[in-house]
Automatic annotation (TrEMBL):
The keyword Transmembrane applies. This is Arginine transport system permease protein ArtQ. GO terms for biological process: amino acid transport; transmembrane transport. It is a multi-pass membrane protein. It comes from Blastochloris viridis. The gene is artQ_1.
Length: 223
């Protein structure tokens, strides 16, 4: 989300920042995520200073979460960075669409009140852009969860990787991948409910929902 806002902000600027944002969006939106993960893991990670790579590869007891999953490991860090950057460009596009729906009169009124460029962006544009684009952004975040299965290609022991490991041990492919599918389904359903609940709610939609609930309770059906 933060990366998406940064890219969107850069695109609103003029000159090099705008062209940089456009280049990032076009590059990561038009190349496969699997290729990007392989690039970050096998090419970009190898370019890091030797001391950094040794520190990342070392054991860090304080960065291990149950059941023994290290948070500071090449696979986890690369997967997190690759997935975050890939999703950020799509979130930036959704935010740009949300910004386009903000009436220009609000921007003019804010400037007439003495608000600067950053204040207009922070207090006027971004809150409304997020509200306008929240549902598409929820879809992108759910895609992020599903695309995390590609992280198994660089050795990250996530759900797909574990399902393959179980299948290779006992040849119970149906049970292993059925369990993995159910886990993805459960995570997706929980994520969608939480994101919708956390998202901005428009007063009009809340009033409509309340009216529908009252009408349904009295047996009047949907509005």
């Amino acid at each position: 989300m933060v990366l998406g806002i940064v890219i969107t902000t850069l695109r609103l600027e003029r000159g090099p920042p705008r062209w940089l944002a456009i280049a990032i969006i076009e590059l990561f939106r038009n190349t496969p995520l699997l290729v990007q993960l392989l690039f970050w893991y096998f090419a970009a990670f190898a370019l890091l200073p030797r001391g950094w790579k040794m520190w990342i590869a070392a054991d860090h007891a304080w960065a291990v979460v149950p059941p023994g999953v290290p948070l500071i490991a090449p696979e986890f860090l690369v997967a997190t960075w690759g997935l975050a950057l890939f999703t950020a460009v799509f979130l930036a596009e959704e935010l740009r669409t949300g910004l386009a729906a903000v009436p220009a009169g609000q921007i003019e009124a804010a400037r007439a009140q003495g608000l600067g460029r950053l204040d207009v962006l922070r207090f006027i544009l971004l809150p409304q852009a997020v509200a306008n684009a929240w549902q598409p952004m929820v879809g992108q975040l759910l895609n992020l969860m599903k695309l995390s299965s590609l992280a198994s290609s660089i050795g990250l022991a996530e759900i797909t990787y574990q399902a393959r490991t179980i299948e290779s041990y006992n040849a119970h492919s149906v049970e292993a991948f059925a369990a993995g599918t159910l886990l993805y389904l459960a995570i997706g359903l929980i994520m969608s409910r939480i994101l919708v609940w956390l998202g901005p709610h428009r007063p009009g939609s809340l009033r409509r929902s309340s009216a529908e609930a009252r009408l349904a309770a009295t047996g009047g059906g949907a509005l």
